[in-house]
Write a structure and sequence with these properties.
The chain is mainly alpha-helical. The chain has a domain of 45 residues. It has 3 helices and no strands. The longest helix has 24 residues. The mean pLDDT is 80.
């Protein structure tokens, strides 16, 4: 049967191990990516616009349902004169 001293030593060892794990820096954080050499203000603007339109579409699809969103996108393409081959 363990003695109280053994229990205290085990508890202290466990606490030390937990502290060590908690104080170890996380290597799971992603490093910030550098801007690619071909990235321009124009591509940045287009990316922001694309993200905005995608989020708008996703919100409408969630609110109206998939069929209504597909029909709205189809009508918008026809209105703008965009052919289906694009």
């Amino acid at each position: 049967m363990p003695t109280p001293t053994d229990a205290h030593q085990s508890a202290n060892s466990l606490v030390a191990a937990v502290h060590k794990c908690c104080n170890t820096p996380n290597s799971h954080h992603l490093k910030q990516r550098k801007s690619v050499h071909w990235w321009t203000p124009e591509t940045s603007r287009l990316r922001k616009e694309s993200n905005y339109l995608r989020r708008t579409f996703q919100r409408k699809r969630k609110k109206l349902g998939a069929a209504a969103s597909i029909m709205e996108a189809h009508n918008a393409k026809n209105k703008d004169g965009i052919s289906a081959s694009h």
